[in-house]
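Handout, tutorial session.
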Amino acid sequence: KVHAFDPTGVYDASKAEPMEAFSSTGFADATIDFIQRQGSSDEPFFAWVAFTAPHDPRTPPAGIREGLDDSKITLPPNMLTRHPFDNGELEIRDEKLEAWPRTPAAIRRHLGEYYGMIEQLDGQVGRILDALQQSGRADDTIVLFLSDHGLGMGSHGLLGKQNLYEHSSRAPMVIAGPGIAPGTQRDQLLYLHDIVPWLYDRAGIEAPVELHALNPGEYSRESLVLNYRDIQRSLVEERWKLIVYPKVGLVQLFDLEADPHEQYNLAGTDEHAERVHRMRAALIKQMAATGDTASIPVDLVPARDQPDPSSPVP
């Protein structure tokens, strides 16, 4: 169900109406109509298309999954039957969408549904880009494809997004448009909001507030601080990533260059003890700078890599 836009921000549930099409299709239809209504005008336009796919319930339209064999789907290399330890909020809604222990067949089914939703979404993005091309305005339009998070889908024994592993916190950012060389790739640390000042500049609009200048490819943060409620905190550097679980006093350190799937916790090794100490201090400093009052324990215990067979299943 959807609501007509209300500038007051108050949406009465009784006024919601069902969409006539599958959600991604309906959003694309509305966007294509908007683009076509711009006609040949030189006036600038802005379209924000907030697709809900591939969020659950993962129910791709009929026909998308016909003929697909879930048994041939490749499992994630870091798949586990369950998460190795209590992360502070393990029994949240997303994680209750499948029983523990996770089985290969169950994860393949979830992945099949996930991929089906993504395939259908991809087609709708294509329809929007085709409409933009047909409008004659593609050559002077900047297109961004962004996401706010990913899903576990079996990685680390998780299904949802309530974690700070790469599979959930590393979001895509794809940009196309005038002055952007096709095929250019950058591997740098950015927050999604870092793109805002660049967009203002490219659109020739004066920013309403002071924003840090950004030129993709030349600007990169030295580190990122990630958080999930008051339950998890992480400091990400170019190669190293520290994850702290304040509620349960656990810590992880991953070498993202050698271990991109975060399978080997180095926090308990003598070799990296000083790195853990330094990154913990840097995390606390950055948290303080933003008013984050979550308490990071002094005596953190390295978290397990693999589930303990003797511990109870959630």
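The second record follows below. Compare its token runs with those of the first.
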Amino acid sequence: QVTAPHEHLVLEGKPYTQIIKAQKDHAIDLIIIAAHDHTVVGRLFVGSNTDYILHHVHCPVYVYKEAAS
């Protein structure tokens, strides 16, 4: 449960463009995003949406990636 002040946004469109736009429009100071593997090659890198966000926002990004079992 999140106890700090927070806001939920529901947006439509490409995930990375909407997240970057929301960060600018709402002065978001932290983005938390999950990364998951789709393929063996994908395990070497974070997803393309996550990678794009990491390089284009102006705030910290926490990437949660579940450990492989």
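Points raised in discussion: The first strand starts at residue 31 and ends at 35.
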